[in-house]
Amino acid sequence: MRKTLLAAAAALLAVASVRAAEEERRTLTVTGTAEISVAPDICYMSFSVETSHKSAADAYRQNNELMNKVNAAIKAKGIAAKDMQTTNFTISPEYHYERATNKRIFDGYLVSHTLYVKVRELAKVPDVLDAAVNAGANQVLEITFTVENPKRYASEARVDAIKAARAKASQIASLTDVKLGKPISISESEPGRRILYSQTAVMRNGAGAGEGVTLEPGEIKLTHTVYITYEIN
Fold first, then answer.
1. Fewer CB in a 10 Å sphere around the end CB: N or C, the chain?
2. pLDDT band at 151, cuts 50/70/90?
3. What is the mean pLDDT of residues 95-112?
4. Over the stretch 23-65, which tens digit does the pLDDT of each residue have?
5. 123 DSSP 8-state letter
6. Is the pLDDT of residue 175 over 50?
């Protein structure tokens, strides 16, 4: 029994000593952020076909015919089916307000079908735009150039971010008359991206076509941030 009590007391003293050492440890936490510029490698495009008719069935039929033509035209430009996806499809009644009678008057049905397209060869973007518009897409909702997988560039940005954090910690230590020790904690954020330039075009009801449109991919800014806690003496 006596030996058990002595062992327990020794364990408690050891834990207390560790906690005291941790409480006495002084630390400095800094962040380092790096930003690199890369060329975009993919373009996301979004097209819609809208049709209206007194009959929902007729509005749907007309829309389906046009969207089939848009699909075929885009595929003819070398876009794979796996890179095309319907992101929205709605059938809704349309009304207008008649002031004289203070009533809503039924106009018919509006069918809207939105197609999302990934273009992996940027040189094809103008051709895909022209093909979709000429085939019947009456809304071009978005054209965005970006980087499909920013993690590919994480290693390069990470090196610069760690250097920035180290430089900041060294400067703070020097200015406050402390000695920088070893890192005791390191973490990082997921790489972020900032589009310096992307072309977003909105065209409704066939107002304008794709011919002659100049699209500039620009460049993408990728950022990487690290958080480092140093021991200081």
1. N
2. confident
3. 93
4. 568 999 999 999 999 999 999 999 999 999 999 999 999 999 9
5. G
6. yes
What does 19-73 look like in DSSP terms, one character per residue? HHHHHH-EEEEEEEEEEEEE---EEEEEEEEEEEESSHHHHHHHHHHHHHHHHHH
Mean pLDDT of 66-73: 98
Average pLDDT, the chain: 85
Ordered by start, the domain boundaries in the chain are: 23-40+149-196+216-233, 42-146
Contact between 43 and 125 under an 8 Å Cβ cutoff? The reply is yes
**Tokens 């979709």 belong to residue:** 132
> For the whole prediction, is pTM greater than 0.85?
no
The Cα-based distances of 102 to 54, 93, 98, 183, 228 in angstroms read 22, 19, 6, 73, 67
Q: Which fold has domain 23-40+149-196+216-233?
A: Translation Initiation Factor IF3 (3.30.110)
The CATH number of 42-146, from 3.30.1130.10, 3.40.190.10, 3.30.70.2970, 3.90.1150.10, is 3.30.70.2970
